[in-house]
């Protein structure tokens, strides 16, 4: 059995905040508490409340503010001599670096956070930091390297009965199986994650699990309406909690579902929306995936072949620069799919029955 989900990044005077609190509410409460702590010279409390501010800013897509906040939290923790609080600040900074596509920096910060967490006796920040390293590797496509770490962290989370971390680990393992084409296993894992998240009232984890289920329902079963229904349910949570990044990924997935169904004009509109959202929060991975979906949709709608080729080449260069190997493989498949004269289409057309059309994940 799992207890009610909690947010360990809400610390000090903010521990009463719900894991489901709106990020704008978290930001307001954290900012008030941070100012009080700084005014009174309470460096430890400033570090803890500053962490919540950094995480709220990051999840709202305010990259510059988040960067300043986690660094200020780290400085305050160092002044207080609080090793665990230093680890939490570095975890936040590493997570932000991953979100920005700075993967080498993310790895350095998260590894240091795990080390300081162990030194400071905080098993939770150590676990979260190792999870961040695992997620960084998974996003880059290093499945062999991180699969075992995901499984280790899942076992630890289950042993502690920590619902939120269990849900995260299940979703990460599910995504690896999905990307390898093992849809049945991925579906079962996403389904378990959704069930635990619902039981523990982890609305954020539940929204991500629903997105994963929608992906499988679309690509494996071709059930467009059910997939869109799952995404609509997840979107309501994203909007209620002001989850900007999760909402953008939700819109991109909706584009994927429509693309696979041959509804290219609708997919184009969703990819354009998601691309604008990712650009607003300076999230390069999301931008690249939305660009890929948009390029494929425009090609299916009759875009000039040379323009498609140029955009895919530009995307390939960008993904090589960032270090997203799995996404780079997706671009290579798109180049083969769209630029092969035998498969090039000149206008919108639904996919033939029984044929699965792949989309950017």
From TrEMBL:
SUPFAM superfamilies: TPR-like. Keywords: Repeat, TPR repeat. Pfam families: TPR_12, TPR_2, TPR_7. InterPro entries: TPR-like_helical_dom_sf (IPR011990), TPR_2 (IPR013105), TPR_rpt (IPR019734). The keyword Repeat applies. Residues 338-361 are annotated as: Disordered. It comes from the Bacteria. The keyword Nucleotide-binding does not apply. PANTHER family: HTH-TYPE TRANSCRIPTIONAL REGULATOR RV0890C-RELATED (PTHR47691:SF3), REGULATOR-RELATED (PTHR47691). This is Tetratricopeptide repeat protein. It comes from Streptomyces gilvifuscus.
């Amino acid at each position: 059995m799992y207890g009610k989900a909690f947010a360990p990044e809400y610390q000090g005077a903010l521990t009463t905040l719900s894991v489901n609190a709106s990020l704008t509410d978290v930001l307001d409460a954290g900012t008030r508490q941070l100012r009080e702590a700084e005014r009174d010279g309470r460096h430890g409390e400033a570090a803890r409340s500053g962490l919540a501010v950094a995480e709220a800013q990051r999840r709202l897509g305010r990259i510059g503010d988040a960067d300043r906040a986690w660094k200020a939290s780290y400085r305050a923790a160092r002044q207080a001599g609080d090793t665990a609080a230093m680890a939490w600040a570095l975890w936040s900074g590493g997570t932000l670096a991953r979100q920005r596509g700075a993967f080498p920096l993310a790895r350095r910060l998260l590894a240091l956070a795990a080390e300081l967490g162990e030194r400071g006796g905080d098993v939770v920040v150590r676990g979260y930091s190792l999870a961040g390293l695992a997620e960084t590797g998974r996003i880059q496509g290093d499945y062999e390297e991180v699969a075992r770490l995901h499984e280790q962290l899942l076992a630890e989370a289950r042993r502690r009965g920590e619902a939120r971390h269990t849900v995260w680990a299940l979703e990460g393992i599910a995504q690896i199986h999905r990307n390898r084409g093992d849809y049945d296993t991925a579906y079962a894992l996403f389904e378990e994650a959704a069930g635990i998240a619902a039981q523990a009232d982890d609305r954020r984890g539940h929204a991500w699990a629903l997105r994963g289920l929608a992906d499988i329902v679309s690509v494996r079963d071709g059930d467009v309406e059910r997939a869109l229904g799952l995404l609509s349910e997840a979107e309501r949570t994203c909007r209620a909690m002001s989850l900007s990044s999760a909402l953008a990924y939700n819109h991109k997935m909706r584009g994927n579902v429509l693309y696979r169904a041959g509804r290219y004009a609708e997919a184009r509109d969703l990819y354009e929306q998601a691309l604008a959202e990712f650009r607003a929060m300076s999230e390069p991975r999301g931008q690249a995936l939305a660009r890929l979906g948009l390029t494929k949709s425009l090609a299916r709608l009759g875009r000039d072949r040379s323009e498609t080729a140029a955009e895919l080449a530009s995307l390939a260069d960008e993904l090589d620069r960032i270090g997203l190997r799995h996404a780079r493989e997706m671009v290579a498949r798109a180049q083969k799919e769209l630029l092969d004269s035998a498969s090039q289409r000149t206008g919108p057309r639904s996919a033939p029955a029984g044929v699965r059309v792949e989309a950017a994940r």
